[in-house]
Amino acid sequence: MKVVVHVVLKPGVLDVQGKAVEAALHGLGWPGVADVRVGRTIEFDLPAADKAAAEAEARAMCEKLLANTVIESYRIDAE
Amino acid sequence: MKVVVHVVLKPGVLDVQGKAVEAALHGLGWPGVADVRVGRTIEFDLPAADKAAAEAEARAMCEKLLANTVIESYRIDAE
Q1: ipTM value of the model?
Q2: E strands, B1-79, where?
Q3: CATH code for residues B2-78
Q4: To bridge B38 with a disulfide, which of A37, A53, B1, B17 should be the other Cys (CB 3.0-4.6 Å)?
């Protein structure tokens, strides 16, 4: 089963990468761009009986490895 | 307008970060995980008249800054 995990910084956590991108976009001629946030996605194939099982496994992976849950939140899409 | 840009490595380009995550997941007890690919998302607010205009601007941003189009492809979602 194909699983996509989206990891983003929690609201309120300073996104320095986003700030750098925002400053670069302003400099390149898009002064109106605001609130830039950079996240990451992890896609993978997972052998699982059904969608619920895949999501449960992916959640465990996020808690253990894929996300730093102190500062990041994650969303799981299993297809 | 809220814009989300998804950037992923093109098929065939070796994803070393994905390989590292895959090896770590195997070591943590998920030997069945395969084809791990890591991408990134850039979310931002953009003043634009309509969805088509926002997408056109975001496409220009991708070509200039957000994606390395030699090895990466991108997808734009404007809402």
Answers
A1: 0.90
A2: 2-9, 34-45, 72-78
A3: 3.30.1280.10
A4: B17
